[in-house]
Amino acid sequence: MTVSSTNDLISSDLNPLVMLTDPYPVYEELRELGPVVWMKSLGVWGVFRDEQVREVVSDHKRFGSRGGGGTSNYYFEKPWRERSVVFETDQPDHTRARTIFSRILSPLAVNKLREKIEAEAEQFVAKAVAMGTFDVIADLAYPFPLKVLPDAVGLPDEGRENMLIYNSYVRRGRQANWQDNWTEEEHREGERISAWVAERCKRESLSKTGFGAQFYAAADAGEISEHDAANMIRSFLAAGVETTMNGIANAINLLASNPDQWAALKKEPGKARAAFDEGLRIESTSQFIARNTLDSMVYYGTPMKQYDKIIAFVASANRDPKRWKDPNVYDINRNSVGHLTLGTGIHGCVGQMMARMEAGSMIAAFARAVDKLEVVDPASWKTTGTRQMLSMKIAVTPA
Amino acid sequence: MQAAVSRGLAGIVGECGGGAMCATCHVYVEAGDYAKLTSPDGVENEMLDGTACERKPNSRLSCQIKAKSELDVLRVYFPERQI
User: Of A102, A335, A337, which is closest to B47 when you measure between CB atoms?
Assistant: First the structure.
């Protein structure tokens, strides 16, 4: 049988997996091609429909994570930095790390931070609202998670923006042939940033009362090694700041751009978490999740080799009309449960209760503090690497 | 959990979509039916300590209960709240 393939959009002269200003119409085309698509210029498989994306992301018996989170395949290419013991592993190793994460980031643990996070959300919102006109990214969505999450981990104050520089290296380090594609300068800078992060994840760098200390407590109890504790903290910081920033920014953009939804939220401020979750569905900050086959297999009629990379485009699945009614409509009253932005299954986002707490607090505080909002400069987006808002200016009238 | 959510039953939230991460799909399983189920694994056990309403011996996360024909009928009670 003919295998569907494509050589556009998800191909690039610059970066693999280029994110266009509006990727959604292109995903629609790719969903039409077939259940599995061969992405010729990248040499990896892609799935774009909810049915396959869901399976590939959650069926850990057929699809593994040890091969890495991007087009670079760790079975064949050295990773840029040591594999994450939770994100880039398979069972049984994964289970051990995951269980510890689940415990440290449990809903109970996150709830203990509720008052503090809600108070900080109020402060950041008040500061921005007092400006009248402000940038959603620079003045709201960026500084709040940058304070809250590293605080919760127990990081010192200075240099936290280095986390975001680190993240861009992590993403680029997941691209195939990263070693050959970087300049000398980029290699050096990558090393420098990596060392900075590694230093911050050490036991002695962290406060005695944060999440970080709890990972080391697990090491003291013999559950994990000291080395793995540092690795887990690294993963948590990398995964837990920028994603939340983008999620909050996207939600505010969607509310500002959909006056009926802003009105719905004003009427029911309890819908703040729903406004965030529906925002995650319609505008995934991570557009894809990578897996690799564990054995040669035939998937929906397509033969695949062992350890072939298969990229599951969650952003496309979340707009699949076979799964979602009016998928391109932002509707905070729909039940968005079951979207795939946070993954699902054993590798589903373990920090999501923290993210929901932060975002819910900020959006609720925003809905209480603001009466009218108006877009002054619409959102501008990065066009390569990841789907990320660069800036957006709004003008608000206080409530 | 999927059955409840797809039928719009308000007693289940399932915020994380069924991944044993949010503890908002908490149910109390009818005594007679509880024995039909396999025990919760380590992760579910941790999560059950974080439910909004009191954890009881028959507490389960409904997202971790797999529908099987052998289960036939499973009776559960919703707690007062999930969040």
Answer: A102
